[in-house]
Design goal:
heterodimer, B: 114 residues, 5-stranded antiparallel β-sheet, 53% strand
Chain lengths: 113, 114
């Protein structure tokens, strides 16, 4: 009963390095989301995918790219990491309707030096 | 412009007493509201929700109240237990929004003292 699985759980990068965060869900959900959470702040939407084959920008997309590989998997890529991208990244999934809650993974803690 | 605001960063209550967490929103298109609970080093988990056609929804010790005219909702926890100590996020979504996106508040850290 995994739900939403994120890998890796922790990562340290140097400025300028690239990295892909992986996310997979086993609930057959249509929609998937990537958020970042900075200290003392809420969850800010980076990108989302309403359904397989579609992706759209959220509130803070700059510096990131995403791929909805299939219905299960949604990856987030940092092409050239910057210290401002140090954060905790959460992936979530849902049925895709406004009255359905999102299910979250346990996060990836990313530090960029 | 923050559309969902939780003005109290923290709240401390005694075990057995009531905890009241508040949330305000500005976007009148929001018609569904959710509360999530988050423990350290874990992702948020869904707690309770309410549709804009209702003004109250209850689930065990948790009750959410919605005041549409004031654009305000609150989460009541009665009685509070030490295991309720966590960060609580308020979220709102609109039926017209693509993909069921939600807008989140900054969270309120609840501490329940034994």
């Amino acid at each position: 009963n995994a739900g939403v699985t994120q890998t890796p759980k922790f990562q340290v990068l140097k400025t300028g390095q690239s990295m892909t965060l992986q996310c997979a869900q086993d609930m057959n959900h249509n929609s998937m989301y990537w958020y970042r959470q900075d200290p003392g702040m809420g969850l800010r939407l980076i990108y989302y995918s309403a359904s397989e084959g579609t992706t759209d920008k959220g509130e803070v997309p700059n510096g990131y790219n995403v791929s909805r590989l299939n219905k299960r998997e949604f990856s987030l890529r940092l092409e050239s990491a910057a210290p401002s991208q140090t954060s905790v990244y959460f992936c979530a999934s849902s049925e895709g309707w406004s009255n359905q809650p999102q299910h979250f993974g346990d996060g990836t803690r990313l530090s960029i030096l | 412009d923050q559309q969902v605001k939780q003005n109290s960063p923290s709240l401390s209550v005694q075990e057995g007493r009531i905890s009241i967490l508040n949330c305000d929103y500005t976007n009148s298109m929001f018609d569904y509201f959710l509360w999530y609970k988050k423990y350290p080093a874990e992702g948020p988990t869904f707690l309770i929700s309410i549709s804009s056609i209702k003004d109250k929804n209850e689930d065990g010790r948790f009750t959410v109240f919605l005041n549409k005219s004031a654009k305000h909702l609150s989460l009541h926890i009665v009685p509070s237990q030490p295991g309720d100590s966590a960060v609580y996020f308020c979220a709102a979504s609109a039926r017209a929004t693509n993909a069921g996106k939600s807008t989140f508040g900054d969270g309120t850290t609840l501490t329940v003292k034994p």
